[in-house]
Amino acid sequence: MEQVNEYPSDRPSISNNGFLLSVAVFPVAFAWLLTLLIKAFVPFSTIDADTEFAAITAPQHKSHISRNYFVSGVIKQDYSNSNLFIVEENEGTVYPKTPVSHQNSSWSANLYTGAPAGDDFRIVLMAVSNDDKDRFHNWFKTGEATGKYPGLPIVESMQELSAVTVQVSNE
């Protein structure tokens, strides 16, 4: 039997370069697509109560709180060019609570939540842009005038610094 050393020129040759390129590109493309999907459905990262940026020292993560609750924490970095706020966050919606001064490293506030008893929500210290600060202040004014405080959607310019998840106690 005669061995063929060359393929005829009319037959296409099989190249491994295209296959190797697709094998190398697939994981990167898949990771990029997965990141987009996660960002679309998970608006906030699962940031801790104590981070390199700040810490919420009270209430404790996974604790039960009453409708009137005390929140405190510390700021660990310089945010003099930012606007800091405590917000309640639930399912991608924020409810601004109070501005936090960046003049001192420690802060505290007595707050009230309208969240239903038994519901979990997050208390978040966040840095917001000047536009977001104006939106928050307008939200407060409208709420005081109407008595209604619908949540605001989370936007990309809002940066979480520290967060805890709490549950409203049955009173």
How are the elements arranged and paired?
Layout: H1 16-41, E1 54-58, E2 63-65, E3 68-75, E4 83-90, E5 93-100, E6 106-112, E7 120-128, H2 130-146, E8 152-153, E9 159-168
Parallel strand pairs: 2-9
Antiparallel strand pairs: 1-3, 3-6, 4-5, 4-7, 5-8, 7-9
Name the features.
single chain, 171 residues, alpha+beta, Immunoglobulin-like, 2 domains, 2 helices, 9 strands, 35% strand
Description of the molecule:
This protein is of the alpha+beta class and 171 residues long. The chain folds into 2 domains: 16-44; 54-168, Immunoglobulin-like, CATH 2.60.40. Helix content is 25%, strand content 35%. It is built from 2 helices and 9 strands; from the N terminus they run αβββββββαββ. It has helices spanning 16-41, 130-146; strands at residues 54-58, 63-65, 68-75, 83-90, 93-100, 106-112, 120-128, 152-153, 159-168. The chain has a 6-stranded mixed sheet. A hairpin with a 2-residue loop joins strand 4 and strand 5 (93-100). The relative contact order is 0.20.
SSE order, one letter for each helix or strand: HEEEEEEEHEE
The spatial strand order of the largest sheet comes to 2-9-7-4-5-8
Radius of gyration: 26 Å
CATH architecture name of the largest domain: Sandwich
Count of extended strands: 9
Helical run tally: 2
- State the secondary-structure class: alpha+beta
Shape: elongated
How far is the N terminus from the C terminus?
92 Å
Residue-averaged pLDDT? 83
CATH topology of the largest domain: Immunoglobulin-like
How many individual domains? 2
Q: Summarize the biggest pleated sheet.
A: 6 strands, mixed
